[in-house]
Amino acid sequence: MSGESQTREVVRGYHEARFRGDVATAAALIGDGFSFRSPLMSSDDATGHLAGITGFVQVVTGVDLISELYGESEATLVYDVHTATPVGTQRTAEHFQLVDGRIVSIMLIFDATPWQPMRQLMV
């Protein structure tokens, strides 16, 4: 399997597991030294990052993947997340870095302005 194929398999596996709320499968695709950064929160370990998935997917009503770009050890996904919140649909870009076939870094990029009134509920 080429590096790009493996990257695609891991990143798509994580993306799909996360939006199903399947924390165990998502966790199995994360490597040592993991970090997560977004406009609203950050985490320097998989446990802290994955703790919020179950609550988040409860407000997600759908995800439309717009673009996927894969390299040997990185990937970028662009997608719309449809939510049952006042935010509605959130356009999102997500950059992944991988080491030895596991995700070690995720940078989530989106406009956090509509989420500010709900931020205290997400902590």
Approximate shape: globular
Query: Over all CA atoms, what is the radius of gyration?
Result: 14 Å
Helix content: 25-40%
Mean pLDDT: 91
Number of helices: 5
Which H/E pattern describes the elements? HHEEHHEEEEH
Distance between the termini: 40 Å
Structural class: alpha+beta
Number of strands: 6
Low-confidence stretches: none
Q: Order of strands across the widest beta sheet?
A: 2-1-6-5-4-3
Strand content: 35-45%
Biggest β-sheet: count, sense, barrel?
6 strands, mixed
Topology:
Elements (H helix, E strand, L loop, with lengths): L2 H18 L2 H6 L1 E8 L4 E2 L2 H5 L2 H5 L2 E11 L3 E10 L5 E11 L2 E8 L9 H4 L1
Parallel strand pairs: 1-6
Antiparallel strand pairs: 1-2, 3-4, 4-5, 5-6
Structural account:
Strand 3 and strand 4 (74-83) form a beta hairpin. The protein is globular and about 40 Å long. By secondary structure, the chain is an alpha+beta fold. The protein is built from five helices and six strands. It has a six-stranded mixed sheet with strand order 2-1-6-5-4-3.
Essential attributes:
6-stranded mixed β-sheet, alpha+beta, 123 residues, 6 strands
Quick take:
The chain is globular. It is 31% helix and 41% strand.
